[in-house]
């Protein structure tokens, strides 16, 4: 029987510091009502001044390993999806490996911005089906607050920090990751970008003190309306592509687990699926856009609330700068 790749553990971590829209009102010329109406975001978590992205990833990984009943010595590979690495090199994944007490097995990062976790699952699924690894730790982790211009009210209100992780296992058993589709089009790179090299913002600094002219900081620039239109269009196409590719009726999908960028984008994708919003994982209000961490954070939120049952069909989807976009179909095989 061919190998299938199953999610056997999940975990997440959010920094303790919470920044609400009302907090931002005291910093910028904006209001809670304005932010909620346009994005659905009410608050976001912000890394502490002594935290790295790898620290967020390690806590999420530990929770996922505990959930799977495994130790780091049971893992064959670590893949970290991040746009905000601790440093240019070595990889954040290698730092996570060290902090977890692992050694010897391969680790690397993948950078596909908000689609990073979806890309990572697609890549690891293929490698594990080919027999390269039996068990993998796949993590999405971001410290987005460290690459924002906190004077720019059009972008800084959108993002938050956090990490989510899953443990994957290749088994001769039906279910698990059914398949993935991933895409990219660099012609639209100017619509959402961060210009400058990001050698790793110092954890000794408070992210909220960072501004566009801070050394090494990559301030995010976005043309919001154009990004919104592209995201809605491409995510709608993704739904048809991935279900058609695998001969699945859209009505068979039990849960939509989307990238948490904007409530209106999520709502539009759910409408395309004819899926009621109570079958959609929604964390954007309390997490904001955590880039590569948002899909695994939303998944773990569903899981911890006891909403998932064995056999449920899940659709993960994401759209990010590049533009890059993609989706995974997953048959849930983890008991709550």
Structural class: alpha/beta
Helix content: 25-40%
From the alpha carbons, calculate the radius of gyration and give it in angstroms: 19 Å
Instruction: Tell me the name of the CATH class.
Output: Alpha Beta
Largest sheet: 5 strands, mixed
CATH superfamily: Thiolase/Chalcone synthase
Detail the poorly predicted runs.
211-216
What is the residue-averaged pLDDT? 91
Shape: globular
Total domain count: 1
Which architecture does the CATH hierarchy give at level 2? 3-Layer(aba) Sandwich
How far do the termini sit from each other?
Answer: 27 Å
What does this protein structure show overall?
The chain is built from 9 helices and 13 strands. It has helices spanning 21-25, 32-39, 53-68, 92-100, 116-129, 224-245, 263-272, 284-287, 294-304; strands at residues 4-13, 17-20, 43-46, 77-81, 107-110, 135-143, 161-171, 176-184, 192-194, 220-222, 255-258, 313-320, 324-331. It is an alpha/beta fold. A hairpin with a 3-residue loop joins strand 12 and strand 13 (324-331). The longest helix has 22 residues, at 224-245. It has one domain (1-336): Thiolase/Chalcone synthase (Peroxisomal Thiolase, Chain A, domain 1, 3-Layer(aba) Sandwich).
